[in-house]
Design brief:
alpha/beta; Spore Coat Polysaccharide Biosynthesis Protein SpsA, Chain A; 5-stranded mixed beta sheet; 3-stranded mixed beta sheet; elongated
Length: about 375
């Protein structure tokens, strides 16, 4: 009997862990394959450990491991160290999986021989009035205009990609490329996929590998989440000397240019208002024209972005539901500015301080 190992990092999942375990237990595997499920708990203090331990007692296929490092990369590595399977599938507690999810991962790997295979990243919100904001967050998440055209959000795409949602690997992938970088609180999957690419490996996405992810349910939580994603991306880029994709740079460049123009306009206004140069002198005239030019660029950038956000919001609301329209502009800005501001701070800490800020190591879920 061949074994497929499911690896799961978790922390503070009391309200979700039992439903997740039921969904994994219901997976239909191809004939000749057996399941083992390794769940690494990051020192939960909310009752998750007790509920998970009780489930493991009732189903010997499930094993709870300790993850003293608490973060995802540490949890994944602890699971990989204990895994007995020749094929390894990562699952997330906040995702619902098709009954043949693992079977399709196996089939795609056997058909392509890829080093990592997975399905598209499909987001969905809860039904009813209580879930309106979460549905709007999911709709923005799925939009190519918000996601920068990431193929992982394209539900129909079949082929090679630079990264994939969650992932599943033959054991040889970890023997060849190593495990996950435990210095990274976020983006450890992107870094691992970039390592695979740079070493000549292949990552494959199949639309037949189906799952549904439930995102954060508030705009503030989305902002904090994407600020943390943006923060850790420069550490990945510094490590490898390149970005995994151009879209990872755009939010940081956009926000940095906006902030720089704003600071420059304030500085020019201060110089002129304090009479630091003689009134009507050539220098004063040059500074006045410079101030006007900076303000024009700042206004142009702001208006262009605002109009773009409104049009994108209208397009998403037209397809996904008019009731989402009032939330979408704030949500789109939370995605972009959260990621952009995080990237700026990440570049400062990566290049100037030379080390990450512990404050950005705090988990957001």
């Amino acid at each position: 009997m061949r074994i497929v190992s499911v690896i799961v990092p978790c922390r503070h999942e009391r309200d979700h862990i039992e439903a997740f375990c039921r969904s994994v237990a219901a997976q239909v595997l191809p004939e000749g394959w057996a399941l083992e499920v390794l769940i690494a708990d990051g020192q939960s203090e909310d009752g998750t450990r007790e509920r998970l331990a009780a489930w493991c007692l009732g189903d010997p296929r499930f094993v709870m491991l300790d993850n003293p490092g608490r973060i995802v990369s540490c949890g994944l590595n602890r699971c990989i160290e204990r895994a007995r399977g020749e094929f390894i599938v990562r699952l997330d507690v906040h995702t619902v999986y098709a009954p043949d999810y693992i079977a399709q991962c196996l089939a795609t790997w056997q058909a392509t021989g890829a080093d990592n295979v997975g399905g598209p990243w499909r987001a969905e919100g809860a039904a009813g009035p209580q879930g309106t904001v979460q549905r709007a967050i999911a709709a923005a998440f799925q939009s190519r205009w918000v996601a920068g055209g990431a193929l992982s959000r394209d539900l129909a795409y079949e082929g090679q990609v630079d990264t994939v949602y969650l992932g599943s690997w033959p054991r040889q992938t970890f023997e060849r490329f190593g495990g996950f970088d435990e210095t990274l609180v976020r983006n450890q999957d992107d870094e691992h996929n970039l390592r695979i690419h740079k070493s000549g490996g292949r990552i494959w996405q199949s639309a037949r590998i189906r799952s549904t992810y439930f995102p954060r349910a508030s705009v503030a939580d989305v902002f904090r989440q994407y600020r943390q994603y943006g923060y850790w991306k420069p550490f990945v880029m510094k490590k490898h000397g390149q970005a995994a994709a151009l879209r990872h740079l755009i939010p940081g460049v956009f926000v940095a240019s906006f902030v720089m123009l704003l600071i420059l306009s304030i500085a020019l206004q201060l110089i002129l208002s304090l009479d630091l140069v003689a009134h009507e002198s050539p220098e004063w005239l040059a500074l006045s024209w410079a101030k006007l030019g900076v303000m024009a660029l700042l206004n142009l950038q702001f208006i262009t972005y605002a109009v773009g956000v409104i049009f994108i919001s209208l397009a998403i609301a037209r397809e996904q539901g008019k009731e989402l329209g009032r939330y979408l502009p704030r949500i789109i800005m939370a995605y972009h500015f959260g990621y952009g501001l995080g990237s700026i701070r990440g570049w400062f800490d990566a290049l100037v301080r030379g080390r990450p800020d512990p404050a950005f190591g705090r988990l957001t879920r």
